[in-house]
Amino acid sequence: MNIIKRNNVKILGQGKKTMLLAHGFGCDQNMWRFIIPAFEDDFKIVVFDYVGCGKSDLSAYHAERYSELQGYAQDVLEICNTLQLEDVTFVGHSVSCMIGVLAAIEQPNFFSNLIFIGPSACYVNDTNYLGGFSRQDLEGLLDVMDNNYLGWATYLAPVVMKNEDKPELTKELQDSFCSTDPIITRKFAEVTFFSDNREDLSQLSKPCLVMQCSEDAIAPDTVGQYIHNQIQDSTFVKMKATGHCPHLSHPKETIAIIKNYLKTHDH
């Protein structure tokens, strides 16, 4: 199995240390393009597409493997192993935050720290826990995906992006949703929205940064705060950036927060 081809892995940058950028649901590595130039001098930057996303090898998709987030965490670990990475700064967006948690619990030796952009450990509201959605909400969303895939993408993209003054970004996200295989994306949506990783957080032994966006309909404030409280060595930053994709909508603020964190937390 050619892991590099399977996950469309690209390596950029000049630095000795490694930064691994992991995209969110319905996205691909292209979503990092505004962030990469700021770190190219100091880091070797690794970007990739999860199987089923972007320009990954679709023939490598197996429904059983990717029926839980652990399958995607294996992608991350196999990339680290193939490239013989160590002391990686893992930067995950959205669902990739918990994929990073699972990977770092399983093989902590690959990672030095983790940076989470818009993380959620569980999207479904529970007793004494506000995830942001009822189970009915999410089942309704999956029904729309089944019955009107284009309509689903048109509805969800502006909710996720939430920057009405930048319609081109909403269109880009919508196009990204529509460019993936609908069956795989539907499965990934189900795995993303119905995963519950709350119990995993306390097992994370690495320092991490929780970047919480403002007015984030996908991962509200309560969720970011919950993650921060559960992880022993974590730093919480509330962003001015609105929406769920600050690396696209507010790259300057995103870069500044990451750089500031790494100044004090990079060994």
From TrEMBL:
Gene3D superfamilies in alphabetical order: alpha/beta hydrolase
Coiled coil stretches, renumbered: none
Superkingdom classification of source: Bacteria
Domain AB hydrolase-1: 20-256
InterPro entries named among the record's database cross-references: AB_hydrolase_1, AB_hydrolase_fold
Family, as annotated: Belongs to the AB hydrolase superfamily.
Name this protein carries in UniProt: Sigma-B regulation protein RsbQ
Source organism per UniProt: Olleya aquimaris
